[in-house]
Design goal:
With about 140 residues, the protein is mainly β. It is built from 1 helix and 8 strands, in the order E-E-E-E-E-H-E-E-E.
Length: about 140
């Protein structure tokens, strides 16, 4: 029997190189926490006459959705940030698993803010960051 491991609900967080006032920990998050998604393929397969040629990508665009509590001052700091300048630079995303590891996004920016309802029934606002996530790092070893 192999232990399935543990997920830590309060480990998910973000840390910014240039804007530490925007750092997010579990205490600032709604139940949905943090989500990450990727655009594109890590490796493309290009058709050839008798097979396919692999073409690894050097990066993927990545989107991180932060479900921040509007009832805390951190949400107003994010609002002030997108109103002033949506660029946030480099950010590290910590997952709910210390075994799985982190994701580093370069040149990130706030790209969207989800619809909000102000009827007192939903405490969160979903803020989406988009940045560059580097993959296939061994391709630079030539």
């Amino acid at each position: 029997m192999i232990s399935p491991g543990v997920l830590n609900r309060v480990r998910a967080s973000t840390k910014y190189d240039d804007f530490p006032e925007l750092n997010v920990s579990a205490s600032y998050l709604a139940k949905q926490g943090i989500e990450i998604s990727f655009q594109g393929n890590i490796t493309d397969f290009l058709p050839a006459m008798t097979g396919a040629v692999q073409s690894p990508q050097p990066y993927l665009l990545s989107q991180v959705k932060l479900h921040i509590l509007r009832s805390q001052s951190l949400a107003s700091q994010y609002k002030a940030r997108w109103e002033l300048d949506s660029k946030v630079g480099n950010v590290r995303l910590y997952t709910d698993s210390s075994v799985f590891g982190e994701f580093d996004l370069s040149d990130a920016a706030i790209t969207s803010v989800a619809d909000m309802t102000f009827a007192g029934g939903d405490p969160g606002v979903a803020i989406t960051l988009t940045g560059t996530y580097y993959v296939n790092s061994s391709m630079w070893d030539f």
